[in-house]
Structures are given as C-alpha cells and as structure tokens.
C-alpha cells in the first residue's frame, strides 16, 4: 500500500504584517476621510453653507477695524493695517479652532474608538485638517480683500504655505496634548479657553510687533520667541508690507530666529510623544 503525502503548507495562508508605508497610507486615508466628512457635515442643512466660515472673522474684523482705525488711528502708522489684522485674525482663528476642537475630540468620538481598530492619532490630525480646509476657503476671501485694498501678489507670497505649515504643526502638537489630557482632567477645557484669550492679545493680532519694540523694548525679543507673533511678523513682510522687518531683522541677531522654530518643533515632538504614550489607555479611561 502506497502512502500518500499531502503538502499542507501551501494551503495555510501566511499573514504578512503591514509595512510602514502601508500603515502610513492607511493613517493618511483615514485622516483625510474623517476630516472631509466632518467638514461637509458642518454645513449639512445650512442655507449659506461655506459662507458661514467667513462670518466670524469678517464680523470681528469689522468691529476691530472701526475701533482701531477710526478711534485709535493705527492705520496711519501701519501700512495696510486692515489687511494685516484680517490676515492675522484668520490665521489665529485656525490655531484656536484646531486646539479647541482637539480638546474634546477623543471623548466625543468614544464610540468610534471602541468599535474600530485604528491609530487614535487620526482624530486630532483630522481636526487639524478640517480647520485647514476652513482656513483655505477663508484665505481666498482675504486675498480678494487684500487686492482690493492695494496689496498685490508678489513672489514673497510663496512664503505663506510654509508659514501656514508651521502654524499647523504648532496647533497639531498642542491639540494632541490637550486631547489626551482632557480624557483624565476635564478642567482642561475652561483652562485652555482662558489661555486662548491670553494668546489672542499676546500674539500681535490687533497691533504689529514694532509697537512692542517702541513701548517695551526690553520685552521685544521675549515677545517674538512666541511662535505665533513670530509667524505673523514674517507674514506681514511676505504678504502685506515688503518694507516691514522680517523675523531675522526683528531679532537683530538672525540666529535668534531659530528660537520660535525650535519651540514649534519641540511642542509638536512633545505632543506626539505624549499622545503615543497615553493613547493606548484612552479607551479604558473614557
């Protein structure tokens, strides 16, 4: 009798671990899908739709512009002052929308975290991308206003994507930290609302950094170490007034301009490390 040997190894499928490239593609796909869904859902059933993204910054701009030009007369000292405060308002609103949206992001998406298996970092990243989409739509209106005010495009406008990218990295890093901290400490939300208000007045939105140099020169460099006014300082020169000081000239010592850049990288790295450390325990803490 002849023995029959059956090769069973070929019938057993071998499970291959996903490569890092495949994981990165899946993470980016999930982030974009969630961000786009949130962005569309925000205007679902709305008559004006995307126009609502312009209401808040332009309404606040109208009040600020009237007070600081007609009453304070700052437009006489700052060229294209209206364009500056509108652009700064829009960019700061992006930072505030990202960070405030990230605070409760993990808690509000608790069911999603429990039902699906994916890297939780997708959630704060999607919040940042949604805010970035809103920023892009609002900047179109800002550019129209700028051109109508006599500020015309130049090659230095190409710096804007880099400045927005730096603000995106900063906001995302802060947002990641806030999202995991809120899971344990619900006081984070009111605390961050107060911090956001402080940052609003400390970030050279209603004024330009040169006014700080005139009134409090000893605090000037410390003030510019804050990444947000540092970004707005460079934005003013690149987009609005080519005669305004760049961030390197504002510091007088060009090497000091690396300080706000280092703070941005440090905050993002800290936020990423802290999120990756705490995120495995998020589901059980919710």
Describe what this molecule looks like in 3D.
- The chain has one domain.
- The termini are far apart.
- The radius of gyration is 24 Å and the shape is globular.
- The longest helix has 27 residues, at 122-148.
- Helices cover 69% and strands 0% of the residues.
- It has 286 residues and is mainly α.
SSE class = mainly alpha
Please report the total strand number as a whole number. Answer: 0
Count of domain modules = 1
Q: Name the helicity range.
A: 55-70%
Mean pLDDT: 82
Low-confidence stretches: 8-12
Distance between termini?
65 Å
> How many alpha or pi helices?
14
Shape: globular
Percentage of β-strand residues: under 5%
Question: Main β-sheet, in a few words?
Answer: none
Order of helices and strands: HHHHHHHHHHHHHH
* Alpha carbon gyration radius: 24 Å
Element layout with pairings:
Blueprint: H1 20-42, H2 52-71, H3 81-103, H4 105-108, H5 110-115, H6 122-148, H7 160-184, H8 188-201, H9 209-215, H10 220-224, H11 227-240, H12 247-251, H13 258-278, H14 282-285
Helix pairs in contact: 1-6, 2-3, 3-6, 3-7, 3-8, 3-11, 6-7, 7-11, 7-13
